[in-house]
């Protein structure tokens, strides 16, 4: 299969880990006879520096014409004092909104060799396998007005959702639950927010269309607690944009590190943007120690969700598993009796564990 893939490295460690995904995809392509063509474009702080805007027209056009998009991360201190509309994060929010990528899938499934890498007790997290489905193009992130008032002494952010925006993400969650263990937890703040009460009503309405799926409602504060005290309670979690952002970083603790979590941001026709859940990690950027596995696992999600290449996706996931089983880990993790390695070496080990070794030889030049 021929596929056009846009690479948006962005900022900080985004630039370091995107190369890992590209190498892994090239390896899979040569094994299965696919042709992946990569086109790199600017986003975030990188785009501000080059073009004076976090989301250049050229980047939008390229993404609109692509089969799928891989993104590293955006943001960093250098751009933190810019006005809101000019921040690197606006580039990411803009591409999600422009492409209509309303469904953000954040699978949280720990690898068994990392059970003791989590600060949580092994017997609490063992067996946990959660899919967080986060609404991605609405809510507080996009509502207008969002501005300072009264000479800067007051502020307003707007939480707006249209019923149709809630319906489509809730439908997606029921459909996903059907393909898994048929349990759906809807997370909201219905004891306080009108938007949550409408969300809850829609979940109740939709549940009639999916009688085989068991539904429960949890308030977000209790959900945050239960996620780390009883993670095995959950199968699929569906929630609005901001709650989903917060809960997914929290859930990453189950896997040992935020650096492990991949994500898929998709719309109904399968077009998608794939990125790790973490950010640009300015504290470790440029040191060559970033964990590339969340990025590599995001590439696997791309194969699965946008290209229907399940076997290839599973092979990448297995190569990651084997690498961890062999005891290799990056600085954000720890495996007893294992060996700490950097981004480049971790990528090399994953490549070696993929059945084909065809691109391993070229890794040094690719990183040069
Ligand atoms: N999708 C994105 O592009 C995205 C997501 C989150 C944050 N951000 C941006 O990133 C910048 C930094 O934000 P932050 O520090 O709050 O969050 P962060 O996710 O960048 O980092 C949080 C902590 O996790 C560590 N970490 C994250 N990813 C890692 C990896 N792959 N390997 C090893 N350690 C890793 C970091 O070193 C840091 O200690 C901000 O500008 C923020 O807006 C971007
Ligand atoms: C960088 C930021 C805008 C983004 C978000 O809040 O959606 C990030 O935290 C994420 O989780 O993808
Ligand atoms: Mg986040």
CATH superfamily assignment of the largest domain? Isopropylmalate Dehydrogenase
Strands across the major sheet, in which order?
A: 2-1-3-12-11-4-5-10-8-9
Which architecture of the largest domain would the CATH scheme give at its second level?
A: 3-Layer(aba) Sandwich
Fill in the CATH topology of the largest domain: Isopropylmalate Dehydrogenase
Amount of beta strand: 15-25%
In helices, the fraction of residues equals: 40-55%
Helix tally equals 13
Q: Averaging pLDDT over every residue, what do you get?
A: 95
Which ligands occur here? Answer: nicotinamide-adenine-dinucleotide, 3-isopropylmalic acid, magnesium ion
Number of domains: 2
CATH class of the largest domain: Alpha Beta
* Computed CA radius of gyration, to the nearest angstrom: 20 Å
Q: Label the overall shape.
A: globular
Q: Distance N terminus to C terminus?
A: 29 Å
| Structural class by SSE content | alpha/beta
Q: Biggest sheet, in brief? A: 10 strands, mixed
Please tally the β strands and state the result: 14
Low-confidence blocks of residues: 356-368
Write down the secondary-structure element order.
EHEHHEHEHEEEHEHEHEHEEHHEEHH
Cofactor: Mn(2+); Mg(2+)
Site (Important for catalysis): 141, 189
Subcellular location: Cytoplasm
Main location: cytoplasm
């Amino acid at each position: 299969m021929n596929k056009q893939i846009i690479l948006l490295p962005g900022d900080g460690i985004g630039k370091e880990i995107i190369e890992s995904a590209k190498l892994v995809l090239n390896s899979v392509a040569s094994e299965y006879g696919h042709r992946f063509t990569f086109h790199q474009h600017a986003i975030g702080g990188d785009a501000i520096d080059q073009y004076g805007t976090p989301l250049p027209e050229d980047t939008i056009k390229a993404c609109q014409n692509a089969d799928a998009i891989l993104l590293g991360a955006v943001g960093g201190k250098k751009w933190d004092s810019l006005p809101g509309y000019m921040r690197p994060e606006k580039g990411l929010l803009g591409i999600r909104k422009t492409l209509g990528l309303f469904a953000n899938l954040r699978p949280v499934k720990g690898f068994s060799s990392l059970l003791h890498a989590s600060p949580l007790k092994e017997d609490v997290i063992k067996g946990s396998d959660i899919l967080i489905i986060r609404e991605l193009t609405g809510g507080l992130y996009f509502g207008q007005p969002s501005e300072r008032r009264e000479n800067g002494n007051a502020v307003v952010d707007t939480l707006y959702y249209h019923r149709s925006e809630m319906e489509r993400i809730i439908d997606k969650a029921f459909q996903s639950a059907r393909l898994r263990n048929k349990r759906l937890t809807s997370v909201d703040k219905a004891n306080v927010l009108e938007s949550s009460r409408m969300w809850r009503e829609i979940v109740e309405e939709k549940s009639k269309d999916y009688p085989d799926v068991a539904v429960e409602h949890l308030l977000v504060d209790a959900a945050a607690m239960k996620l780390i005290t009883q993670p095995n309670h959950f199968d699929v979690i569906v929630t609005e944009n901001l709650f989903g952002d917060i809960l997914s970083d929290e859930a990453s603790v189950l896997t040992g590190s935020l650096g492990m979590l991949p994500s898929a941001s998709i719309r109904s026709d399968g077009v998608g943007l794939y990125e790790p859940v973490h950010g640009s990690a300015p504290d470790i950027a440029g040191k060559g120690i970033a964990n590339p596995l969340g990025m590599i696992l995001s590439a696997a999600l791309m194969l699965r969700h946008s290209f229907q290449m399940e076997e290839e996706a599973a092979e990448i996931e297995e190569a990651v598993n084997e690498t961890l089983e062999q005891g290799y880990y990056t600085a954000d993790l720890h495996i007893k009796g294992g060996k700490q390695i950097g981004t480049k070496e971790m990528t090399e080990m994953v490549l070696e564990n993929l059945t084909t070794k065809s691109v391993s030889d070229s890794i040094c030049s690719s990183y040069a």
